[in-house]
User: What shape does this take?
Amino acid sequence: MIIKSLKIRGFKGFEKEFYIEFNENKTIIEGENYQGKTSIGEAITWCLLGTNLFGNDKTINIINKNSNTACCELKFLDNEKKEHIIIRSKGKENIVVLDGRKANAEILSNYYYNKKIFLSIFNPYYFSSLEPREQRELLRSVLPIIDYRDAFNLLSQSEREILVEPRINLNDFIKNARDDLKELEKEKNNYEGRKEYANSIANSYIPTEKFFQHEKILDSLEREYELTLKSVSGDTKREMKTKLEEIDKSIENQSKLLNKLRNKYKEMQSVIKSIEQNNSICPVCSNKIVDHNKLNEIKNIQNNLLNEVIKEGKQREIELKSLQVQRSILDIKCNKLNPNSQKEEILSILQEKISRLKLEKEDIQKYNFEIIAKQDAVKKANSDIELIDNALEENDRTQSILKNQISTATSLNNLIIKKQIESVSKYLDRVELIFSKIDIATGELKDDYKILYDGKEYNMLSLSEKIRATLEISNLINKVVGLNVPTFIDNSESVTHYNKEFNNQVILAKVVEGSKLKLVG
Assistant: This one.
C-alpha cells in the first residue's frame, strides 16, 4: 500500500480544508507542537479503519470546534498498484465511501487485513501500548506457520512418546491439559478429605459386646406366668376390662362405618333425584344428558349402586346389634363375677419381674446392635480407604502424565517459536524476541515473553531505543505478513538513526521549534 494524498476538513485542528501529497518513499512533516502533525497520521487511520492511531474507535472530539462535520479523503495504491479513494465523514450522518460506493469495515479490511497488524506497522507506538500478552499473541499470529507434523519431529524420541502424537493446536492442548490438571487436583483434594474421614471411622474404638445372663430365669418366669393363667380359676379384673375395651372398640368402628353408609345413601339419592329432572347432569363427566336412553342407563347404574349401599347398611346394622348384645352379656357377667384376687396378685408380681428382665435384655440388644453397626462401619471404612488409595494412585499417575505432556508441549511450542524466529531473524538487527525461560527451581522450560534491545529489556530502554526497537518489530511484521503498509513515525526527531532500511513508504513527523506545519520531502 502507498498513500498518495490526504484531504481533510473539519478534522481536529483543521477547520478549513487541508491537502497533502505524500512521496512514495519518504515524506517528512515538520512543525512546532500542536500544529497537526500527529492529526495527519490519525486522519489516515480514521479514514481507513475508523479508529485513532491506537485502535480506539470511540473517536470523540475529532470534529473541529468550529465545524459541524469532520471529513477525510484518502487516496492510495493497493499492493496491485490499483488506485482507490476512501471518503469518511462524521457529523449528522456517518458516511464511508470507497471508490464512489458505500463501504463498511469488512470491505475496507481487504486493504488493511487486520486492525492490530496494520496499526503495529503504521504506528510503531501502538505495539508498545499493548499488554505483553497481546504483543506475544500478535507476534505469534504473524510468524510463519510450521506444519504440526513437522513440528512433532523437532522432539526427541522420548519426548514424542510422552506427547503420543502430533498435536494440531498445541496452545489448545496445553490449555485443556491444564484444565484437566485443575479438575484432577480438585478430585485429589476430595479423595484426601474422604480418606481422612474414613480413617477417623476405621480407627474408632469398638467396645466388647455384652451378653444377657438371665435368659433361663426369663424363660422360667414366662412359663410360670402361663401356668398361673391356666391353673387358677376365674377372670381377673384386668382380663374383664380388656374384653370390654375390645368389644367397645368394635362397636365404635361398626357405628362409624354405618354412619358413612348412611351419608353415602343420602348423597346417592340426591344424585338420582337430580338425574330425573329435565336439566339432567351426568354425575361422572358433569356434562348435560340429552340422550334419553343414556339417561335411563345412568339411572339404572345409580339405582344398582344405591341397592348395594342399602344391602351393606343392613348387614352392618345386624353386626352392630350383635356386638351390642355381646356387650350387654359381658357387662352382666362382669358385675356378677368375683375375680380371683390371688391370681391377680401372682400374675402382677410375675409380670413385673418379666418386664424388668425384658427391658434389660432389650438394652443389651440395642447396645450390641450399635457395636455391630460400628463394626460394619469400620469394615466399610477400610474398604473405602483401599478404593480411595487406588483412586489417588491413579490420580497421581494421570497428573504425572499430564504434567509431562504439558512440559513437552511447552518445549515444543518454544522450539517452534525459536524456529519461526530464526526464519525471520533477517528482519531484525538489534532486537531479540524471547518466548521462553528455564525455571531455575525445577529446570522446566516455561512460557515467557521479553523484548531485548542490545541485550537490555524493553522497560529499561531510553525513549529513542524503544522507538528503534518497535520500528524493528514494525518492519518485521510488515515483511512477514507482506502487507507493505506505510509506517508513520511521530516524534521522529527522537530517532537519529535506524539500523534497518525501510522498503515501505515512511511518513516522518518531526518537531521543529517555531516552525509552522510544512512538508520537507
